[in-house]
Amino acid sequence: MIITMSPAKLQDFESPIPSVEATTPLYAKEARELYKSMEGIDAGEIASLMNINPQLAHNVYQYIHAYPLGKTPQRQAALAYNGIAYQGLDAKTFSEKEWEFAQKHLVHISGLYGVLRPLDLIKPYRLEMQIPLANNKGKDLYAFWRETISKYLAKQMKADDNVWINLASKEYAKAVDRKLLPKGHKVITPIFKQHTDKGYKQIVVYAKKARGMMTRFIIQNQLTDIEHLKGFDTEGYTFAPQLSDDKEWIFVR
């Protein structure tokens, strides 16, 4: 099975990490092209374009202009991303075999890099997929990346079992054109809910962490049979067949 995750806004290029190999992003040329197209945009325009505060916009401005420089810090994607989902993934503790499995089966969808494998080196950046950045392929990043991402995912699915476990957010899952996926493909989107006084509800912070934990569960157990995904039980989650259908599998706690 092929698993997709969203990137994280929070990134860490400073804390100690294990010594693991590194690979080059498959679409590094396209990433450079995107950032180069933004070199003429000032911090104020960045703030407006990305709907972020001036300090974050200043940081992004620096990322853009430092990107081509050789001394810019780099780190493997799965170790650089530091959001809630990646705390659940906890890639720092992967064994060699788990890294090998992750590199073959896990795809990080990125607004800057298109697709990333866990060991692909990235530089500090902030470029969310929904940002309306006009480019030579259209009005936004979906136009720039959709075909590239979709064809890559289709290729990976064909080489595997034609199953896509979608653990990316809606914003990033939209970057995949399902018409370009192989015939007979299967997409499962796990949904994570908490028991409340008003029934089972999806709470964003918990759902984000659960996406990372499920990805870790798949990697650690080297899952190849989709049915075994129903055994996910990290931090008290259980599969709820009565709430699920053939496209959305609901896990509750």
Structure, described:
By secondary structure, this protein is α/β, with parallel strands linked by helices. The protein has one domain (2-184). It is 36% helix and 17% strand. The chain has helices spanning 28-37, 43-50, 54-66, 77-80, 84-89, 96-105, 141-159, 170-173, 204-220, and strands spanning 2-5, 75-76, 106-110, 114-116, 121-122, 163-167, 186-196, 199-201, 238-239, 248-252. The strands form two sheets. Strands 1, 3, 4, 6, 7, 8, 9 and 10 form an eight-stranded mixed beta sheet that branches. A two-stranded antiparallel sheet has the order 2-5. Helix 2 (43-50) crosses helix 3. It starts with a strand and ends with a strand.
Q: Would you list the SSEs in sequence order as H and E? A: EHHHEHHHEEEHEHEEHEE
Mean pLDDT: 96
Helix content: 25-40%
The biggest beta sheet reads: 8 strands, mixed
Instruction: Give the oligomeric state.
Output: single chain
- Quickly give the structural class: alpha/beta
Spans of at least 5 consecutive residues with low confidence: none
N-to-C terminal Cα separation, in Å? 25 Å
How many structural domains in the coordinates? Answer: 1
Radius of gyration from the CA trace?
18 Å
What proportion strand? Answer: 15-25%
Number of strands: 10
- Tally of helical segments: 9
